[in-house]
Amino acid sequence: MICGVDEAGKGAVFGPMVVGVVGCEAEEDLPAGVRDSKALTPKRREALYAEITGSFPWRVVEIPAAEIDRLRQEMTMNDLVVRAHAEAVRSLGAGQAFLDACDVDEERYRSKVAALVGDGCEVVARHHGDALFPVVSAASIVAKVTRDRALEDLRVEYGAIGSGYPSDKVTIAYLKDYIAGHGTAPIFARTSWETVARLFDRRRQTSLGDF
């Protein structure tokens, strides 16, 4: 069996990072139309997610915001992703794993994951792996749909939080207003992110200006 691994939400300031892994005997067995999740409409992603999870081995490794903050005290974000990718690969026990490389150096990324996976599995890491390998595309769909559902649960509970990414004006407006009103970040925010630190700095400067 081969497997593909990809993650969603690595750079988000809200919500979990989700790593998806999908296994198959041959990529030709995967559903027609499998491609990088970012190139698919939400409706098509959901349909393919149902096909993939209903017919192939799969798992997700979900790392909540608070856990990301804790782990970043011990390691870089790239090393955190390495560990999560390796955990995903081990969970399926495939003989060959294809990864979307989360490092400017593909070989460095490959070797780090391979060291944690151990013997018995050949690891291949490539930039834009979700566009190169259908099995990685399948994993990207599983990861993206899982994270989208997690964000939707947060919206139901907390309101208009946006996509959760720092580039999203809705997300930043929500974060700014929440910090202004509560003096702390929401529980689902990654407080180790520079985005959050900058908003707290601005709040402190504003408060000092009141004196």
UniProtKB/TrEMBL annotation:
PROSITE patterns to which the protein is assigned, alphabetical: RNASE_H_2
Keyword annotations from UniProtKB, A to Z: Cytoplasm, Endonuclease, Hydrolase, Manganese, Metal-binding, Nuclease
Cofactor note: Manganese or magnesium. Binds 1 divalent metal ion per monomer in the absence of substrate. May bind a second metal ion after substrate binding.
Domain of life: Archaea
Keyword Nuclease found: yes
Domain RNase H type-2: residue ranges: 1-205
Entry's EC annotation: 3.1.26.4
GO term, biological process aspect, one: mismatch repair
SUPFAM superfamilies on file: Ribonuclease H-like
GO terms of molecular function: manganese ion binding; RNA binding; RNA-DNA hybrid ribonuclease activity
Cited InterPro entries: RNase_H2_suA, RNase_HII/HIII, RNase_HII/HIII_dom, RNase_HII_arc, RNase_HII_hlx-loop-hlx_cap_dom, RNaseH-like_sf, RNaseH_sf
Catalysed reaction, written as an equation: Endonucleolytic cleavage to 5'-phosphomonoester
A GO cellular component entry from the record: ribonuclease H2 complex
Location of this chain's protein in the cell: Cytoplasm
Coiled-coil annotated spans: none
Protein's UniProt keywords contain Disulfide bond: no
UniProt binding sites for a divalent metal cation: D6, E7, D100
Needed cofactors: Mn(2+); Mg(2+)
Entry similarity comment: Belongs to the RNase HII family.
Role summary: Endonuclease that specifically degrades the RNA of RNA-DNA hybrids.
Protein name in the entry: Ribonuclease HII
Organism: Methanofollis formosanus
